[in-house]
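C-alpha cells in:
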C-alpha cells in the first residue's frame, strides 16, 4: 500500500511572489482602463473617426469661418471689426464647440458679441466635420452625448427649480437680470439642451451632475417637448410674458385703468334724473 502524497505547501517567498504578480496585473489593468478612458474622452465628435474627406472639409471650414478671429492654433485673436479679443478655442470641450454651432452663436453673421438668436450657419455634416477636426487638431476632450428618455412630470419640477427664472415657465425666453438676453428653448433639439446644461455658455451657469443628473436632463428635455407640443393659447397664440415685459404690461394696464376711471367720472350721467325741477312759486301749485 502506497503512502498518500504530502500536500504541497507554499513557502513564504512563493506566496509573496504570487501576491506581487497579482498586484502587478491589477496595476496594469488600471493603466489600461485609464488609457481607454483618455482615448474615449479625446475621440472625435459622435464617437466616429473622420474620413480623410471629412477631415479636409472640417479644416477648410475652420480656415474660412473661424481662423480670422480664433487663430490658426485656436489661441484666440483680435476681431477685426471691433478690436476686441476673441476667446481661444483650443482649451474648450467638444460639447462647447458643438453647442455654439448648433445655436448659431458661431460663426456670427454680424457682431460676434451680440448673443441674441441667430440663423445657424454650419449644420449637419459640415458641423460634424468641423467639430471632429477641431477635436483632433486641438486635442479637445469630451464627447457629444444624447440625453436619456425622460419623464415630463419630473422634468417640470427640475425645470422650475433651475431654469424657469431665466427662460420662463414655458421656455419662451426673454430678458433676465442685468439685461442679459435668454433664448427661447422650444426650438432646440435634445442634444443642444443637454450640452447647454453642462457647458453653461455665456451668462448661463454650468450645472454639474451633482446639481442636475443625466436622468434629470432627460426629464427636462421631455418637459420641453411636451410644452412644444401644446404651446400657445386661444388668445392670439400667447404663451408667456417674461418678468420684465410682464412688469411693463402690468404698469401700462394700471395707467390705462386710471385714465379710464378719470374719463368716466368726468362725463355727464348716462341716465338723466326724471324728477321735475322745483317750482319758484312760493304758494305752490294752484288747485
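Residues out:
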Amino acid at each position: 500500500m502506497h503512502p498518500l502524497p504530502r500536500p504541497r505547501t507554499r513557502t513564504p517567498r512563493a506566496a509573496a511572489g504570487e501576491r506581487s504578480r497579482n498586484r502587478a496585473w491589477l496595476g496594469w489593468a488600471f493603466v489600461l482602463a485609464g488609457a481607454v478612458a483618455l482615448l474615449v474622452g479625446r475621440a472625435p465628435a459622435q464617437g466616429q473617426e473622420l474620413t480623410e474627406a471629412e477631415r479636409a472639409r472640417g479644416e477648410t471650414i475652420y480656415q474660412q469661418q473661424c481662423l480670422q478671429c480664433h487663430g490658426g492654433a485656436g489661441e484666440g485673436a483680435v476681431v477685426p471689426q471691433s478690436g476686441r479679443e476673441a476667446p481661444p478655442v483650443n482649451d474648450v470641450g467638444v460639447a462647447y464647440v458643438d453647442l455654439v454651432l448648433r445655436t448659431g452663436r458661431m460663426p456670427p453673421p454680424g457682431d460676434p458679441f451680440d448673443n441674441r438668436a441667430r440663423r445657424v450657419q454650419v449644420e449637419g455634416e459640415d458641423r460634424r466635420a468641423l467639430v471632429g477636426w477641431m477635436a483632433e487638431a486641438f486635442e479637445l476632450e469630451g464627447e457629444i452625448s444624447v440625453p436619456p428618455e425622460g419623464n415630463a412630470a419630473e422634468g417640470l419640477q427640475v425645470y422650475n427649480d433651475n431654469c424657469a427664472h431665466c427662460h420662463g415657465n414655458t421656455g419662451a425666453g426673454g430678458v433676465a437680470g442685468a439685461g442679459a438676453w435668454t433664448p427661447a428653448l422650444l426650438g432646440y433639439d435634445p442634444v443642444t439642451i443637454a450640452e447647454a446644461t453642462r457647458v453653461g455658455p455665456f451668462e448661463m451657469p454650468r450645472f454639474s451632475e451633482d446639481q442636475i443628473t443625466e436622468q434629470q436632463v432627460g426629464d427636462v428635455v421631455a418637459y420641453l417637448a411636451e410644452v412644444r407640443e401644446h404651446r400657445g393659447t386661444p388668445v392670439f397664440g400667447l404663451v408667456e410674458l417674461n418678468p420684465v415685459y410682464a412688469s411693463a404690461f402690468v404698469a401700462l394696464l394700471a395707467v390705462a385703468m386710471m385714465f379710464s376711471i378719470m374719463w368716466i367720472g368726468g362725463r355727464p350721467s348716462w341716465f338723466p334724473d326724471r324728477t321735475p325741477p322745483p317750482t319758484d312759486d312760493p304758494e305752490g301749485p294752484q288747485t
